[in-house]
Amino acid sequence: MENNKPKMPKFNLTWLYFIIAIILGFLVINSGGQGLNGGSSKEATYSQFKNYVEQGYASRILVKKEEGILRMYVKAEHIRDIFNTQIEKGKLPYVETAIPSTDKLEDFIQSQQDQGHFDGEITYDNGNSGWTHLFWSFGPLIFIVLMWFFIMSRMGGGGSGGGGPMGIFNVGKSRAKLVEKDRPNKVTFQDVAGQAGAKQEVQEIVEFLKNPKRYTDLGGKIPKGALLVGPPGTGKTLLAKAVAGEADVPFFSMSGSDFVEMFVGVGASRVRDLFRQAKEKSPCIIFIDEIDAVGRARGRNSAMGGNDERESTLNQLLTEMDGFGTNSGVIILAATNRADVLDKALLRAGRFDRQIHVDLPDVNERKEIFQVHLKPLKLDDTVDVDFLSRQTPGFSGADIANVCNEAALIAARNDKKAVSKDDFLSAVDRIIGGLEKKTKVMTAEEKNTIALHEAGHASISWLLQYASPLVKVTIVPRGRALGAAWYLPEERQITTREQMLDEMCATLGGRAAEELITGHISSGAMNDLERVTKQAYGMVAYMGMGEKLPNLCYYNNEEYSFQRPYSESTAQIIDEEVKQMIAAQYERAKTILNEHKEEHAQLAQLLVEREVIFAEDVERIFGPRPWTSRTEEILS
What we know:
This protein is an alpha/beta fold. The chain has four domains: 14-131, 2-Layer Sandwich (Signal recognition particle alu RNA binding heterodimer, srp9/1), CATH 3.30.720; 177-357, Rossmann fold (3-Layer(aba) Sandwich); 363-433, Helicase, Ruva Protein, domain 3; 444-635, Up-down Bundle (Methane Monooxygenase Hydroxylase, Chain G, domain 1). 47% of the residues lie in helices and 11% in strands. The chain contains 23 helices and 14 strands. A six-stranded mixed beta sheet has the order 6-8-9-10-7-11. A five-stranded mixed beta sheet has the order 1-4-3-2-5. It has a three-stranded antiparallel beta sheet with strand order 13-12-14. α10 (308-321) links the parallel β9 and β10. α1 runs antiparallel to α5 (129-155), α6 (196-210) packs parallel to α8 (236-247) and α17 crosses α20 (568-595). The two termini are 61 Å apart.
């Protein structure tokens, strides 16, 4: 059945601004010309007024006692004598002047009437001219203020009824989104793939909420809060939703930036209102995402000016979490990528009792995540989940979801009926290296230089024991890179000095190949040099791996610190060690390439011909890697 109701025009703020401008213009015009009575006016002294009356110019006199002024309306035949111009027909010109006293004025008018100089009438205005004056003085301002309240009530609609007529007064209300416990499509731990360790820790919070008596009977206390710490995209928010879904309790969700507002005191007011609502819904969970927006350490940046509003919000949060009041049954979950910048008072026992680290998934956890995101896709027989999980080291859960979505888009772009293994590899390449640019024009000399460069990386990484083995190398431009190589790094928890030096040598292999074969160096190695320099400084200054500065760490965790934690002489030593380390690995790379000059030339020529080569091509030229059996895994 069709809806025959007339469509109302949509509300547009431009209309409102236009109406306000017209009304204000009308008020200004009328306030400026209200006393003219549709005519022209002229201010005069009292002496001039007496002179005009004595000459018989006055037709009528209006006296305003409250304002202490009078208006002498001029006869039509004498208008030109006073105004020196002709007034339009219908206008009532007058002269306005202040009067010293009413008594003197009456005496003067009486004498002029006796002499025949004034035969008009004199009237007195005793009305509410003061109120009229106040209205025209403050009326426009009051109107603007009322319109501002109206606009703010329309635009200030948030999660706390800000859209109503009194929305501006709800600015201190919490903006947390409440999800009730009987909601449909709840998120549970089954929806969170991987993160077995993190799920095990938060499982105890679920047990606290489900059966608190089990712990309180033994004298235990329910923990106040848990802080989820980890890189972006690892599933911290999803894990918090799963805790609320498993415990089947109300869930308040908001971001740390929702506490911050331009008005002073709003952040603290919102914190109080949030905990008030949570106590009414107890037991429940409060989840604050990106808590570092409001929980940064106090006083750390005092030299650059403090943020009193943010600090007062943090103080109120600290008080609510563990102050004189009690929050029985209210558990606070928070997530951040920057736990190092949080205030120590926020992390102490009794507030956030535990920190749960949600790290990047390992190969087995990536396999579980792939299995979740592959369910809605149509796959062919070539897709191997084990292979995909090995091909995505360092990927977060969000990255894996992006890979699956990108693979489906690539398959649809190529008019395929199902997503294949090649689509997933292309998706990984697209995410890591950027969009492939086959139309980019390169000269034959540039193409040969890029092939030598990438072949240098591939050769040394294959020949060194601890360097990551090659998976694929291409000289087709991607993103801002003219060539790219993909490796399969070993997932290890600690890294030795020898492993780092092998990786550094493989990274320098590109420039070493350029200089060794062509006798020139190019700008193509800038990214390699940047990575190597940062790695070398980290080894010497932070990890204590320098020969002259062994077992020393100069890492400074202080934010906005402009002073290095070491002297100028130590800085010189660090610089020298970094130079020597990089120079030694560069010479090592050239030595290895000299020893395998023919194999490197074959690999470069193959790259020029085919533009893309894989690990089996490198193995055919150099032979299998003797140190590890992972070559078979790469080729499988």
